[in-house]
Amino acid sequence: MTTFDQILPRVAEVLRDYAEMIPTIGPILINRDLNGRIRLVVGEPARNHPTAKQAIDAIACELQERLGPHAYPAENAVLFESDLDSVCAGATSFLLEGFEGVKVIDRLATEGNWASIAPESTGAPRIVFFSIKGGVGRSTALAASAWALAQAGQRVLVLDLDLESPGLSSALLPEERRPTYGIADWLVEDLVDNGDTVFEDMMATSTLSHDGEIYVVPAHGCDPGEYIAKLGRVWMPKMRSDGARETWSQRLSRLIDALETRWQPDVILLDSRAGIDEVASSCVTDLGAYLVLLFAIDGEQTWSGYRVLFRHWRKSGVAEAIRERLQVVGAMIPETDAAEYFADLREYSADLFREELYDEIPPSNVAGEQWNFDASDEGAPHYPWAVRWHRGFAALRSLHTRLESIDAQEVNTVFGSLIGNLAYTVANEGAEHG
Ligand SMILES: Nc1ncnc2c1ncn2[C@@H]1O[C@H](COP(=O)(O)OP(=O)(O)O)[C@@H](O)[C@H]1O
Ligand SMILES: [Mg+2]
User: Fold this and answer.
1) Which residue has a Cα nearest atom 25 of ligand 1?
2) Over the chain, what is the mean pLDDT?
3) What are phi and psi of 249, to 5 degrees?
């Protein structure tokens, strides 16, 4: 019996058998619908072209045979369309591996497809903190990074986009300073064109900043209110007055642009959701990230999760658009046998990048579009920036209280590699943009 993962390989098999006929048919769209069933969409002229029609009917029969429940019955498996571009509009699509004129149109029930990579935003660099697993110290590291960047005189805008398990803002803001509203409030108000009502009251500055400034935009306000009812609506797309549809991720982008214009930060830190999740997809791929930090603890779960993602990027043909923005962060490096642990982590990470994202050219080479790095190259995206496990940060009742009394040396011991590299990257990015 055919299962989902065999759909595309089998479609490719069938099409290979009819390879000579494909040019007569013209471009072919493989529509994989919401239920994972396949239909072919071809140009209108093929309908009245005898050889093309014959070939397409034969392909449809063959697909029904080989795909079983994942194919439409041959008699209604082919759609003839005069405008193929409009069929692709708004859907995830990618070329079928090994074919020039065959495109897969993949209809997903969620909007987060991980495979449309927005170009880098032109303003302050946006840095996304992402991890496959939760509880790896990602939000803590983000708070410490904000603290350090502000300490160095930067204006840092921090957004808590981990809407389902918010926590970042409590690390940076004491209870009494929290703003009235948060990101979830703006997203629901925006649905009824009422975003401006909450916009000014969804940000508070942190008392932790001395020389610079930390602007914190939490997931919810000081009183979460009907948070669950709001959460159930934040993902809604919006129909604009001109009839255009805006996805929730585009709405979020619009919010971040507006916050950037309002608060004029030098750098924007985004706390994403963990895992291969729809909101995480938006943070990593849709918000114009300059840098995506991939928090990793050594273990099968982390690496197999990242592999799924990297492979998806490769197969959907977007690896080149995203890979230069990636950077692995080694999270909670243990105190004992730290060097050995780090070496293992680095090896796993190097293997993964080599197998999924690097090009097959000699390492330490960036030849035109080609891209590869040596396993021991400290400047490589797979080479982990380190965050150490530290007793002083384990099971904290209040990270805010902790950060209030912390000194630079202690922050450096734990987060030094991450913070140093971040500061360097941000400074260079600033220089690039003039
Ligand atoms: N470097 C660290 N060393 C030890 N414990 C840490 C460290 N960073 C975070 N923690 C603790 O780990 C737990 C999870 O941290 P958190 O930052 O909320 O993780 P995440 O955002 O990845 O879910 C918290 O109890 C926190 O105090
Ligand atoms: Mg977190």
Assistant:
1) 395
2) 91
3) -70, -35
Give the neighbor-by-neighbor strand order of the sheet with 38-43.
Answer: 78-81, 38-43, 28-32, 102-106, 92-95
Residue whose CA lies nearest to ligand 1 atom number 3: 389
Tell me the pLDDT tens digit for each residue of 367-391. Answer: 666 788 999 999 999 999 999 999 8
State whether the Cα torsion 228-229-235-240 is positive or negative. negative
135: its two tokens: 């509880």
Residues in the chain: 434
Secondary structure tally for the chain: helices H, strands E: 16, 15
Q: What percent of the chain has pLDDT over 70?
A: 97
Taking CA atoms only, the protein residue closest to ligand 1 atom 12 is 137
The Cα 258–Cα 194 span in angstroms is: 14
Q: What dotted CATH number matches 126-432?
A: 3.40.50.300
Q: Which residue, among 296, 284, 322, has the nearest Cα to 131 in the 3D structure?
A: 296
| pLDDT score of 197 more than 60 | yes
Domains of the chain, by residue range, sit at 4-106, 126-432
User: Quick check: 434 pLDDT over 50?
Assistant: no
Contact 287, 256 (CB under 8 A): yes
**How far does the centroid of ligand 2 lie from the alpha carbon of residue 158, in Å?**
13
For residue 5, the SS3 value is: helix
